């Protein structure tokens, strides 16, 4: 189980927002810190203050006066994927070699934020436009990262080489994928992550009833742009599957396997 920076901050944000909701939307900082110290002692005051500042800057929280905050109505935080220093280094080296290629880097372990059963995921993903897949694959091999490098693996290869391993998978980046930039690196938006989770070989651990937990928790905790989600789903030929998932969680029906 991996506790990377993005997962830690997302959980801190989740704790703050849940506490705010339990208090009817308005809360005192001192009371929040007391609650966290009692129930989430691994979360430090500095992390709480940092996330409160970010929530205020993004319009999720409003500062009433010193030490008192209010949850803005009808607002959810934007999903932020902060990549590791290693992922950032890999991205920068690849962009130096291939400045014209569209690519993004991320780790599927970020999906554990929204899952009921947390998987042991240690591999990273480099999504790149089709013509750049082989050059990127060879460039990663030449970096001598001490990790297996896989190029567009099959389901069988994923089952054999990815479970519990530290690897990097080079995959095709679909045109017009929902992307954003964080800390100078291109990373996927939540909409891309959610659509990829429905059927990608490398994300097989999200199959079955788990995908419903992922979608339900994502829609409850972060801002998901449904228009972006469905446009990308159409490009991946997954629109019907994702509409079925959304309809199921919207009507609170028992989860079912995706055909």
Which ranges are low-confidence, i.e. pLDDT below 50, for 5 or more consecutive residues? Answer: 1-9, 253-259
Rg is 19 Å
Q: Strands across the major sheet, in which order?
A: 4-5-7-6
Strand share of the residues? Answer: 15-25%
With helices defined by DSSP (H or I, 4 residues minimum), what is the helix count?
10
For the secondary structure, the number of strands is 9
- Mind summarizing the main beta sheet? 4 strands, mixed
Gap from first CA to last CA? 29 Å
Write up this protein:
The chain is an alpha/beta fold and 259 residues long. 44% of the residues lie in helices and 15% in strands. The chain is built from ten helices and nine strands. Helix 8 crosses helix 10.
In short:
It is built from 10 helices and 9 strands. It has a 4-stranded mixed sheet with strand order 4-5-7-6, with helices on one face. Strands 1-3-2 form a 3-stranded antiparallel sheet.
List keywords for this structure.
alpha/beta; 4-stranded mixed β-sheet; 3-stranded antiparallel β-sheet; 10 helices; 9 strands; about 45% helix; globular; disordered C terminus
Topology:
Elements: H1 5-22, E1 26-28, H2 29-39, H3 45-57, E2 61-65, E3 68-71, H4 85-97, E4 103-106, E5 124-128, H5 133-142, E6 148-151, H6 155-161, E7 167-172, E8 179-182, E9 185-188, H7 190-196, H8 210-221, H9 226-235, H10 239-250
Parallel strand pairs: 5-7, 6-7
Antiparallel strand pairs: 1-3, 2-3, 4-5, 8-9
